[in-house]
Design brief:
With 75 residues, the protein is an all-alpha fold. It is built from 5 helices and no strands. Helices cover 65% and strands 0% of the residues.
């Protein structure tokens, strides 16, 4: 609620609860704010357009790094 420019996305609660359990209530808020701004902001936009753009790179990267895994994922 503090950051009106960031929107919730499915799964963010998993990041939040894990951070809360590991760091505790007071530290978790600050850690989540920093993580959200620095690393998750592309996924927290009002639409999924940027997220979908980024997801298009996952399969080519997997194919390049681990062709066996890519083949199994395709099946």
């Amino acid at each position: 609620m503090k950051r009106k420019d960031l929107s919730y996305y499915q799964g963010y609660h998993d990041v939040a609860v894990t951070t809360l359990l590991v760091a505790g209530k007071d530290a978790a808020f600050h850690i989540l704010e920093r993580i959200s701004i620095a690393h998750l902001s592309d996924c927290m936009l009002p639409t999924m357009e940027r997220t979908m753009y980024l997801l298009n790179y996952i399969y080519p990267l997997i194919q390049r790094i681990n062709p066996h895994l890519a083949e199994r994922m395709d099946r």
